[in-house]
Structure formats: C-alpha cells, structure tokens
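BUG-235 | component: ligand-complex export | severity: low

The export step for zinc ion jobs runs without errors, but we want the raw record kept on the ticket for reference. Input record follows.
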Amino acid sequence: MLADEALTGRSDSHVRAFALPGGASFRAQPQAGEALLALHAAAAQAGIDLAVASAWRGFVDQARIWQAKWRGERPLYDAHGQPLDYAALDEAGRVAAILEWSALPGASRHHWGSEFDVYDRAALPEGYRLQLLPAEYAPDGPFARLSAWLDAHMAAFGFFRPYDAERGGMHVEPWHLSFAPVSLPALPRLTPALMAHALSGSELGGEALVRAQLAQIHARQVCLVGSPSPETKRT
Ligand SMILES: [Zn+2]
C-alpha cells in the first residue's frame, strides 16, 4: 500500500531503480518494475525491444512541465491538438489548456511507480524522434506490432491501458501501461483533499484557479479511466 506522499509524488521512497538489458534505466515500485522486466523479456522473444520512455515521475517533475506551459515556454494545444496562441489566453484559459494534455502535479498516475510509457526501440525508423502520438501505435504506425503484442500478452503480466479510449478525461494514450496490482488499490485513495494537500507550498502557476476546480479535475483526470480486463493478473 502506497503512503499518501507516494500517491501524490511527494516522496520517492516507494520506488527503486531498474535497468533494462542494454543499460537503459527507469524508476518504479519494486513489484511493478519486476513485472515490466518480465514483460520486456517476453516481448524480446517476439523480436520487440520494449523500451521505457517514462516511468516514475515525482511532483517536482510534473510541476516543472506545468510551469513551463504556464509561462509559455512549452506550447499549449486545444482538445484537438491544435496549437493555441499563448498571448490570447487569460489565466483560466491557460489552466484549461495545460490540463487538456498534462496531469495536475500530485494527480499523475506516474507518481505511483506503477505506470510506464513504452515503445518498441527495434521498430524506430532510422533518425526518427519518438513523439508518443496515437498515430505511432495505429495499424500503419511503427509500433503497430508492439501494440498488438501488448493486446495479447500484457494482461498475463498484470498490465492494462487506463487511457485506452476517450472518456472526457485524459486523451487516448496507447503507450501508457498500468500495473494493476499497484494502481487498482491506489486509485480510490487519491482524493481531492489529498490533491489539495499536495499543492501546499508548491507555488504552482494558477494555483487558486486549480484549487477552485479540484473536484472537477479529480473527476475528469483521475476517475475517468479504463479498467483492467478480467484476464488481467491482479496480485
Ligand atoms: Zn504515461
């Protein structure tokens, strides 16, 4: 069971470092990290080099993304992925645009150490820069084979996709895998009150606006997620 500070990314004492064959490393909750290594080994048998683009991220990492967008140092997009004119947005518009594509610091599932953004390094075209876009995982994209392989095999290792469909919360993320034995018990424990507590002292841009809509952010970003299939290993 994760502590409150772990649920909101305020502590990293629940994660440890893992290394994939080839040397790439990531941080994860121990059981989740072991499962990812097992998934990697099974995928390798099928000629897939399952690589981790992102695993554990803390509150500070997520806040860095937030602040860069808040200050206009990173682009903002509307719900359809169209770039927005930063100068034309008021503070409420900025907050809404950030929340469209980024989790609120303290509310990212990546804080739990159970979440992994994965791609197939063996299928990366020469000189291609990974973007983590749905098109890359579509039937005509470079990671189509990885995606199909995950559909068939991830449940046996305890993984599912929480962002498998548009539900009005986070957009579809076919690359984002969640380890059910850790994430299922974590989800109901991340409450709006805990999210509010995590924001204390963070000096997040637009914090007052965020605090005023924490219940809606929780309902959309945290609760509107997919569930594991019945075959998914849960212990
Ligand atoms: Zn992710």
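Assignee comment: Attached the raw record above. The pocket of zinc ion is lined by residues 54, 110, 115, 117, 173, 176 (CB under 6 Å).
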